[in-house]
Amino acid sequence: MRRQRSLMALDEATRCKLVVVGDSLSGKTAMLHTFLGRQFTDVHTPTTFENYSSTMEINKYRMELTIWDTSGKPEYDSVRPLSYNEITIALICFDISRPFTLHNVVRKWHPEVRKHCPTSPIILVGCKMDLRNNIQVMAELSKDRGIPVSHDRGAKIGSQIGAAAYVECSARTNPSSVHELFEVASLAAMGKLKLHKSYIDLPSACRTGTLPGLSTTSLRRLSIRKKSESKVQAPVRVKAVVVERESRGCIVM
């Protein structure tokens, strides 16, 4: 009977419209291309509005994702709200190597999303986490007494805007972190991200307790703070794995 219910759950796919917003050059499109299995490139191609489709299976759930990649340029501010129609979840992205993009999350992107989608869950995404310890980036920021966005700072802003989760990723060096992001987003979209305080792992990152090519000692499990009570039945337990060599990767809030 249990197996039959699991098969039924896989047969009944959940549709999810996911909209990605954030400043231009924050890493949105590279992140999406990595998730879709495309080769990473440093060549920047300006985005207007692009739609993608993908299917994910997480435990016994299947998600049919429609992903909208939007432009962060000011000239598209008047037409971008069209992409918010009937969305399930929003990903607000910023560039860890450019602190002002996180400031714009609070000043522009969160108010815009909440204006058009007052009840949809939000995931705050720190892109380009591989540049946090980049010497050239740190040297450039130091000219104005700045530093790359720390993990704690990103998590604090995520809490401030009421995000369901704060996730860091690198399309260039850590594709698994991108897939973890979309697993978290999919579960949040289904209302299955009601996680009690525990130490658990994301399906794609740690199916056997380790990540490919890494020793067990290089992994550290992440505690997840208790969410408020919800009427969601049988919440899915997700694993959040932190890779020490890449700094912290994912925090579910």
Automatic annotation (TrEMBL):
| Protein's cellular compartments | Membrane
**Transmembrane region(s):** none
Matching entries from Pfam families are given as: Ras (PF00071)
Alphabetical UniProt keywords = GTP-binding, Membrane, Nucleotide-binding
* Gene Ontology MF term list: GTP binding; GTPase activity
The organism's superkingdom is given as Eukaryota
Task: Enumerate the Gene Ontology biological process terms.
Answer: small GTPase-mediated signal transduction
Q: Which InterPro entries match?
A: P-loop_NTPase (IPR027417), Small_GTP-bd (IPR005225), Small_GTPase (IPR001806), Small_GTPase_Rho (IPR003578)
A cellular component term (GO) from this record? membrane
| Keyword Methyltransferase included in the entry's annotation | no
UniProt xrefs under NCBIfam families: small_GTP
User: This protein is called what?
Assistant: Rho-related GTP-binding protein RhoN-like
